[in-house]
Amino acid sequence: MAYPYQIQSKEQYDTIYQKSIEDPEGFWAGVATHFQWRRPWERILDWNFEEPRIEWFKGAQLNITENCLDRHLEQLGDQPAIIWEPNDPEAPGHALSYRQLLDKVMQLCHVLQRNGVRKGDRVCIYMGMVPELAIATLACARIGAIHSIVFGGFSAHSIIDRLQDAQATFVITADGAYRGNKDIPLKSVMDEALEQCDFVRKVLVLRRTGITTTMTAGRDLYWEDEIEKVAADGNPFFPAELMDAEDPLFILYTSGSTGKPKGVVHTCGGYMVYAAYSFVNVFQYQPGEVYFCTADIGWITGHSYIVYGPLLAGATTLIFEGIPTWPDAGRFWDIVDKHKVNILYTAPTAIRSLMSFGTEPVEGHDLSSLRVLGSVGEPINEEAWQWFHEHIGKGRCPLVDTWWQTENGGILISNLAGVTPGIPTFATKPLPGIQPLLVDEKGEPALPVLQEDGKTIVSGNLCIRFPWPGMFRTTYGDHERFKQNYFATYPGLYFSGDGCYRDEEGNYRITGRVDDVLNVSGHRIGTAEVENAINSDPAVIESAIVGYPHDIKGQGIYAFVVCDPDHQPGDDARKAILHTVTHLIGAIAKPDKIQFVSGLPKTRSGKIMRRILRKIAEGALDSLGDTSTLLDPGVVEEIKKGKL
């Protein structure tokens, strides 16, 4: 067995799952013993979902980077830890061994320390997909600073929200980033944000694209110059800071049903145990394999399954700077062929996009090294599942369909590759230690319903009734929001916000969000956040955002917009709205469709009936239900006629 906590058969899964439910504390204690702790725990778990309070491995001390790096040196010191594939396929990439990666992490720790970063400080990281992003992440963890990574596609306005909420005093960025045929000017976007964040003391800037940047004297420093200063001192060892298991490791902001992003807080001990455990078991990783997750480290998938999970397991993780369709739609397959990738973990959005190019870009590539395929970010539709399985996995690679969220820290429901059965469109079974529960609107356990085929299913809102080590502990600076968003809807339960059903064999299928949050290309976007951005346009009186089925993204953004009578709706207004949303949030939140309307369907109390708008956007024009009680029923007919 490669890992002492790796499940190797369906029978073993059944036995271990049952044990994990009967004695969860004993189960997780057994897993946790296989990591390096500086001081053992006094108590495995202290929890109360009513308060809510969750604490794992209480009293234990550790540093996650010692588990990611130091402890691998004796056996894996010369093995590649990171393989970097740059955006330009003609440009040279490189690999970093575990020993080289640790050296670079320690160098940056010295840079951070020399510039005043201390344990508990918040460090904002805003970079492209370069090895230095992983190095910066690990250096923060080693020094005890709390990293807050912001996706490199977000706007200055979005950065401001995150900087101000976290009160980050140190920023790590780059002059720019490459993404396909685009050059993204990261430093200038960060400079715009810093105009409203004068609490930031220092900005460390990596030279990547060579774009002209403005460097503010006394605040801005070049990464390379600071590393040279450390190297001149002989690059001494940097000891890992001693961290309590419940000390924060990172803050990662995610969209909510209000306009303000939530700062999800993950802690050192529990997150470490769960990221490693889920990585090894879901993907059935074997020592020496090359693992390629196509996500961005700015999202939780990148945190858990590009950086921490693989490195904790001593894996070789591949970081890709570019996009799947540049310079052509064969780029992923080039990478798999070139680096002999064994495990490929990507999003349904990417799969559907590549499907649209047919199988020609796949031809001529040797994909025989692939052993496991994985899907993440949203429920995968059957057509995409079958295409991925047949044309990329050649029908022989198990495909893991993983369900989890930013708040979860790691995969909660998934088949285990080649160990437990995969079923198209089903996430299937929970991992050991995870106790899902489907409830109705009243919070009561959902009851089985007999189907026409004679089988029964249970359908309801997906909750979890017992904590797991990787779950988040609070929303940064606002524990009441943590309580109201996740534990108040169904007291005593963690509510995921997703709908779900379970078949007779206990397999789970996620049906999507049940709150005002969209899942666009696998990324959660709050409708209120987009509406706030659109409404800030001077020509707009009000707007309403809903999701609709999108062939590539899974869910598209449909905007219904009411303009000021003095402004003529049309192409110019549409372009202005798109520009505003891009400026305030980022291109990822741009509406796919904008329909100008004279009014929105509202109740007599003024509430917008998004249910009706959602039906219209989906094209279900004959199933809108009773509209006679609306303030102005005629608005609905007008919107139906103008549907895009």
Q: Can you walk through the features of this model?
A:
With 644 residues, the chain is an alpha/beta fold. The protein folds into three domains: 10-65 and 246-513, Rossmann fold; 69-241, 3-Layer(aba) Sandwich (Rossmann fold), CATH 3.40.50.980; 519-641, GMP Synthetase, Chain A, domain 3, CATH 3.30.300. The chain has 19 helices and 31 strands. The strands form nine sheets. A seven-stranded mixed β-sheet has the order 5-4-17-16-18-19-20, sandwiched between helices. It has a five-stranded parallel β-sheet with strand order 7-6-8-11-12, sandwiched between helices. Strands 21, 22, 23, 25 and 26 form a five-stranded antiparallel β-sheet that branches. β27 (517-520) and β28 (523-526) form a beta hairpin. α1 (10-22) crosses α2 (24-32), α5 (98-114) crosses α6 and α13 (348-355) packs across α14. The protein is globular, with a radius of gyration of 24 Å.
Low-confidence stretches: none
Q: What does the average pLDDT come to? A: 93
Helix content estimate: 25-40%
Distance between the termini: 56 Å
In short:
The chain has 644 residues and is an alpha/beta fold. It is 30% helix and 24% strand. The protein is built from 19 helices and 31 strands.
Describe how the helices and strands are arranged.
Elements: H1 10-22, H2 24-32, E1 43-48, E2 53-58, E3 61-62, H3 64-68, H4 73-76, E4 80-85, E5 94-97, H5 98-114, E6 122-126, H6 131-143, E7 146-149, H7 156-166, E8 170-174, E9 177-179, E10 182-184, H8 186-194, E11 202-206, E12 220-222, H9 223-232, E13 243-244, E14 248-254, E15 262-267, H10 268-282, E16 290-293, H11 300-312, E17 316-320, H12 331-339, E18 343-346, H13 348-355, E19 372-375, H14 382-392, E20 399-401, E21 436-439, E22 448-450, E23 456-464, E24 474-475, H15 479-486, E25 494-502, E26 508-513, E27 517-520, E28 523-526, H16 527-535, E29 540-550, E30 554-563, H17 571-584, E31 593-597, H18 610-618, H19 634-641
Parallel strand pairs: 4-17, 6-7, 6-8, 8-11, 11-12, 16-17, 16-18, 18-19, 19-20, 30-31
Antiparallel strand pairs: 1-2, 3-13, 4-5, 9-10, 14-15, 15-24, 21-23, 22-23, 23-25, 25-26, 27-28, 29-30
